[in-house]
Amino acid sequence: MKTKILILLIFLMVGFNSSFSQQLTGRAYYQASNQIMIRIDSADMSPEEIAEAHEIMKKPWQREFVLTFSQTESNWKQSETLAGDTDPSDFDGMTISLSGSGNEILYKNLVDQSYVQEQEFMGKEFLIQDDLESLAWELVEETKKIGEFTVRKAVFTQIIDSKGFSAEMVEMENVKDSIQIIAWYTSEIPVAHGPENYFGLPGLILEVHNGGRAYHCEKIELNPSGTPVEIQIPSQGKVLSSKEFDAMQKESIKQLENRYQGKPGENEKRIRVGG
After folding, report:
1. On the chain, which terminus has fewer CB atoms closer than 10 Å, C or N?
2. Helical ranges in the chain per DSSP H
3. How far, in Å, CA of 135 to CA of 59, rounded?
């Protein structure tokens, strides 16, 4: 029932703003950060060294992205000024790096409910094509201001796959977990787009929190005249569905683990996460 009401709200909003929204294009610039807990053994470190370590370890997760959109399409990519800045951070022998080149594009089409995403993995380019997954948003009667815009709150609970110990605490097993997604959107910009994989609200999403990662909109350009908006559709790479890509990733990582188990360099501490 809630889903039907949300769809009706979006339909009415778009119809009411038709003269404006049919021409609406723009760019929204977001700052992305991870809300991570970093534990450091401080026995032999000064307060200044601890502060420096925290800054170094947080840096790889702080990135800037741009969402380019029309009424029905959008693409999401890392800011061009930072796309090439993928050097890993290093502290006390531990290397932290983000996978991907930083140039990948996520394209969403709200008319046919599909997406196309460029993804680099192990030096190869892939093109993931699949259907958008509908998000069961619940609209909340709570508002605040982000810049000049009044934004409203929406939430939904996402079920994810994770690892956990079995009841006997002997081995790891696949378990289902849930996280609450909190979004803030503005109906003053009547498009159903948002950062990363988030979409489907009656207004542009300006802020998202998913428990660990957060996106904050820093700047918006509407109907820019100087540099007209162009929606890019990714086209490079081997075409796979989302399930095919996930299966390929898992198999490749498993093969690497088997190949390098016990080889020189095994004591090097390295953290690598998807970017």
Report:
1. N
2. 2-16, 18-21, 47-58, 242-260
3. 30
Nearest partner of 142 among 80, 93, 185, 177, judged by Cα: 185
pLDDT digits (tens, 9 = 90+) for 217-235: 999 999 988 788 999 999 9
Report pLDDT digits (tens) over 67-97: 999 999 999 999 875 444 444 444 444 444 4
Q: Which candidate, 161, 191, 162, places its Cα nearest to that of 72?
A: 191
Report pTM: 0.73
Coil vs helix vs strand at 251? helix
**Nearest by Cα to 61 from 249, 266, 215, 203:** 215
Structure tokens at 4: 């039907």
Cα separation of 86 and 91, whole Å? 16
3-class secondary structure for 60-100?
Answer: HHCEEEEEEECCCEEEEEECCCCCCCCCCEEECCEEEEEEC
Backbone angles phi, psi at 256, to 5 degrees: -65, -40
What are the tokens at 275? Answer: 């970017």
Q: Which DSSP string corresponds to 100-126?
A: S-S--EEEEETTTTEEEEEEEETTEEE
Tokens of 244: 């095919």
Dig out the tokens for 139 from the structure: 């609209």
The SS3 assignment for 254 reads helix
